[in-house]
Amino acid sequence: MELYCSCIASVIFLFLVGVAANAQSIPTTLEGPFQPVTRSFDPSLRRGSDDLPMDHPRLKKNVTSMFPEQIALAISSPSSMWVSWVTGDAQIGLNVTPLDPSTVASEVWYGKESGKYLMKRKGLSMVYSQLYPFEGLWNYTSGIIHHVKIDGCMSFIEGLEPGTKYYYKCGDSAFPAMSDEKVFETMPLPGPDRYPRRIAVVGDLGLTSNSTTTIDHLTANDPSMILMIGDLAYANQYRTTGGSAVSCFICAFPNAPIRESYQPRWDGWGRY
Ligand SMILES: *[C@@H]1O[C@H](CO)[C@@H](O)[C@H](O)[C@H]1NC(C)=O
Ligand SMILES: *[C@@H]1O[C@H](CO)[C@@H](O)[C@H](O)[C@H]1NC(C)=O
Ligand SMILES: *[C@@H]1O[C@H](CO)[C@@H](O)[C@H](O)[C@H]1NC(C)=O
Ligand SMILES: [Fe+2]
Q: Which UniProt keywords apply (predicted)?
């Protein structure tokens, strides 16, 4: 449910909806400089959107065994990139046993040519648990969350080249359980005529019947990067036992011992 949103995130989200609704192409900064343009929100557009259930085809985990899912990139500089993903099955219920993160490696294989991964990097992995000491509430323990930072270190390991396309796979090559090939492009080095042409900003994405459309609208405008400023998935409108989202948790469950959350939604944010 999108009803309880941080104000900053909501304002930026609404701004983008306004632009997309206009259906004209958005100029790049290279065509500028322009006066900043803002548009008022069209109140006839729908506000809020219902959460998709976790068993919806879009939100179901669609890999088996220890294959990577929810592969996500995060830029940290023009010569480095974080690659993150999840393996294994989260558990929720009465007797949860944390997975051992050391059972699956965190590897990224990458190179500038498709199918040729001349470079490899290892990273780290972790699990977290949410344990509630209240009767009737379920405990949760996550899948294995992997993070690999590709960057330069200690003078003999080279970082990524700025403004360059890389092909990569991630996973554990010993299983073997590597992902399909994916692609990223590093940011250009900063300079007076070198900068991302277009940056899309989105917040409050959620896992709703409209989240995919929102991302499709953003990518259709060919941004150099999408800045997701937070509130990716909403877990806190749910009981630990799942069920349906409510718009006001304390109104719906006045006797709840704590403001609980349904972590499978939180940890499914990358399936938007
Ligand atoms: C699983 O879901 C991801 C993200 O939606 C998609 O890119 C991928 O193609 C899907 N894989 C399969 C095997 O359906
Ligand atoms: C959840 O974990 C806590 C802390 O270990 C424990 O007290 C509680 O009984 C557990 N709850 C369930 C439902 O297993
Ligand atoms: C948004 O979701 C609603 C259902 O909640 C659906 O009827 C509508 O078609 C969706 N709009 C878009 C643009 O995806
Ligand atoms: Fe929000």
A: Signal
* Percent of the chain predicted with pLDDT > 90: 74
pLDDT digits (tens, 9 = 90+) for 212-252: 999 999 999 999 999 999 889 999 999 999 999 999 999 99
Confidence (pLDDT) at 24: 65
The pTM of the full predicted model, rounded to 2 decimals, is 0.86
Question: Which residue has the least CA distance to atom 2 on ligand 2?
Answer: 131
**Count of Cβ atoms closer than 10 Å to residue 159 Cβ:** 16
- Backbone angle region of 143, left / alpha / beta, with phi > 0 → left and psi within -120 to 50 → alpha: beta
Q: Which has the closest alpha carbon to 141: 100, 177, 106? A: 100
Q: Whose CA is nearest to atom 10 of ligand 3?
A: 210
Please give the Cα distance from 272 to 269 (Å, whole number): 6
> Quick one: which ligand is closest to 271's CA?
1
Site of tokens 């959107």 = 49
Ramachandran angles phi, psi of 87, nearest 5°: -130, 160
Substitution candidate for ligand 2 out of 91, 94, 132, 260 with most atoms within 8 A of CB? 132
Domains of the chain: 11-19+41-271 (2.60.40.10)
Q: What is the secondary structure of 94-115 as a DSSP string? A: SS-----GGGS--EEEEESBTT
> In this structure, which ligand is nearest to the CA of 1?
4
Neighbours of 15 (CB within 10 A): 16
